[in-house]
Specification:
CATH topology of the largest domain: Immunoglobulin-like
Number of domains: 2
CATH superfamily of the largest domain: Immunoglobulins
Largest sheet: 4 strands, antiparallel
CATH architecture of the largest domain: Sandwich
Number of helices: 1
Distance between the termini: 62 Å
Radius of gyration: 23 Å
Length: 127
């Protein structure tokens, strides 16, 4: 009798582990479609900055000319609520994680230097 219970227990454990693996942690897969975003291209006279929202959660910024360490701020265009602010090294492409919480879907991105002077400002919209 003990062998039957042990056998059933082992089957239950194997089934549970298999279920977790098959469901990638047991959760239900997301049915939310990927966020599409318009690309925003902004330029400064001698140092163009290109910014693109890659998947609704990252603002990918690249710099044609290194400007040192600058600050990037992403805010709701209508309310001014800041969603992300980070210092970035302009010698390489940077990804700034953002949470898309705006009701308007309109965002502004501002680049400022170490002294707080605005280098560049642009807007983008999440579709």
């Amino acid at each position: 009798m003990k062998k039957i219970y042990l056998f059933l227990f082992v089957l239950l454990c194997i089934g549970s582990v298999g279920s977790l693996i098959a469901n990638d942690g047991g959760g239900t897969p997301s049915t939310k479609p990927p966020v599409e975003a318009e690309t925003v291209v902004m330029s400064v006279m001698s140092a163009p900055i290109t910014a693109e929202v890659t998947d609704g959660n990252n603002l990918e910024t690249s710099f044609d000319t290194p400007l040192g360490i600058i600050s990037v701020t992403v805010a709701d265009d209508a309310t001014g609520i800041v969603y992300a602010k980070r210092s970035v090294d302009t010698s390489r492409t940077q990804k700034l994680p953002i949470k898309v919480l705006s009701s308007s879907g309109q965002y502004s991105v501002t680049y400022t230097d170490a002294n707080g002077n605005k280098i560049q400002h642009g807007k983008f919209k999440i579709k």
